[in-house]
Amino acid sequence: NVGESGKILEVRGLPGNSVDRDRHLGFREIMDAGGDFEIIEVVGNWDDGTAQKVVADAVAVHGQFDGMFVQGGSTGAVRALILSPTRELAIQIDESVRRYGCHLSLRSTVIFGGVGQRRQVNALAHGVDILVATPGRLLDLMRQGHVNFADLSVLVLDEADRMLDMGFIHD
Fold first, then answer.
1. What DSSP string runs through 91-135?
2. Which residues on adjacent β-strands are paired with residue 132?
3. 11, 71 in Cβ contact below 8 A?
4. Rounded to 5 degrees, what are φ and ψ at 135?
5. Are the CB atoms for 136 and 66 separated by under 8 Å?
6. What is the signed CA dihedral for 95, 96, 97, 102, rounded to 10 degrees?
7. What does the CA dihedral 48, 50, 53, 59 come to, rounded to 10 degrees?
8. C-beta atoms surrounding 14 within 10 Å
9. Is the separation of the CB atoms in 6 and 38 below 8 Å?
10. Res 36 pLDDT > 70
11. pLDDT tens digits for 97-112?
């Protein structure tokens, strides 16, 4: 509870879809109507762990804040990751996810190497609930900043022993 005035830090990702924009606009509408607040906005394309550093830097520059609003679910957000060792298995898993989840409002996509990444990046940019991936392409897209695991709550390692045998033990 902040009260009716104070300094608020808002940390959010770049607008990736209408949900991100609506969260930001809703927050600003509430804050503008609710009192006399100074809002410090920090907007960026975050890698995992970067938001915490941004908050620390903002506190160092602006002093103490009376409240903080950190927006989750930004561009590239993934809620569940199913990691599979091969493209063929990843495609089979994705087909099952789509078949069994066809009556649910879940977004899923599959990413694997050997094909262009543009369509995969576009799907991630809108956020997916379930991501089925092979380790190599996932690592590539993570290094490029296209994947956000801030909202990840489920991790499935399918044939983990095989992925370790393939050399992904340190990844």
1. HHHHHHHHHHTTTS---EEEE-SSS-SHHHHHHHHT-EEEEEE-H
2. 82, 110
3. yes
4. -60, -40
5. no
6. 90
7. -120
8. 12
9. yes
10. yes
11. 888 877 777 788 999 9
Task: Give the Å distances, CA to CA, from 60 to 25, 52, 53, 104.
Answer: 26, 13, 11, 44
What kind and span of H or E run contains 162? helix 160-163
Identity of the amino acid at 157? L
Question: Length of the chain, please?
Answer: 171
For residue 73, pLDDT beyond 50: no
Q: Is residue 1 classed as helix, strand or coil in its secondary structure?
A: coil
The span from the CA of 66 to the CA of 103, in Å, is 43
75 C-beta neighbours (distance < 10 Å), count: 20
pLDDT tens sequence across 113-155 = 999 999 999 888 877 888 999 999 999 998 888 887 777 778 8
- Report the pLDDT averaged over residues 16-32: 74
Residue whose tokens read 């095989």: 162
Q: Which residue has the tokens 């506190």?
A: 59
Q: Which helix (H) or strand (E) holds 154?
A: strand 154-157
